[in-house]
Write a structure and sequence with these properties.
173 residues, alpha+beta, two-stranded antiparallel sheet, 29% helix
Length: 173
């Protein structure tokens, strides 16, 4: 497995709508494993293919909490939200592609997602809570949507100014 290059805002690959994957083969499984290793290396809980420069409908995630004894990795190819609850929740989100930035985002409390798993089998999952939030965040990436797009113009502008300052400080070191 390998750690892949992580693309950060405002790289254009993050705004591209991704293509569906034709089949899950050994090359795709290697890519999924590399994505998961990259996510863990950057201490994330989810990663979408565009974040590593690949415009394919692929995400990996791990929704294990600090209390969990073991990891809970998931690999989703061509994920699609097929149902959303009427109820919503607000969660303070961050993103590996917008380092050191966080903001409250409103998401559906529960969703049902159809996807192809690591072995090429079609699956469905009903997700609530943290898993629902991670899935919605990562699936948004596949459509070129970032969590900042869910913010008001004022909040987005403030966050992007903080990000710009972060980049400047990082380059000075």
């Amino acid at each position: 497995m390998a750690v892949l290059k992580l693309y950060t805002y405002p790289h254009p690959v993050l705004r591209k709508k991704c293509e569906r994957v034709g089949k899950v083969d050994d090359n795709m499984r290697k890519f999924l494993d590399d994505m998961l290793e990259t996510m863990y290396a950057d201490k994330g809980c989810g990663l979408a293919a565009p974040q590593v420069g690949v415009s394919k409908r692929v995400i990996v995630l791990d929704y294990a909490t600090e209390e969990d004894a073991e990891k809970k990795p998931m690999y989703l190819v061509n994920p699609e939200i097929i149902w959303k609850s009427e109820e919503t929740i607000i969660f303070c989100e961050g993103c590996l592609s917008l380092p050191d930035q966080r903001a409250d985002v409103e998401r559906y409390e529960k969703i049902r997602v159809h996807f192809i798993d690591y072995y090429g089998k079609e699956q469905e999952i009903l997700a609530g809570g943290l898993l629902s939030i991670i899935l919605q965040h990562e699936i948004d990436h596949l459509d070129g949507i970032l969590y900042i797009d869910h913010l008001s113009r004022l909040k987005r502008t403030r966050l992007l100014k903080k990000l710009e300052k972060y980049y400047e400080e990082k380059n000075e070191k």
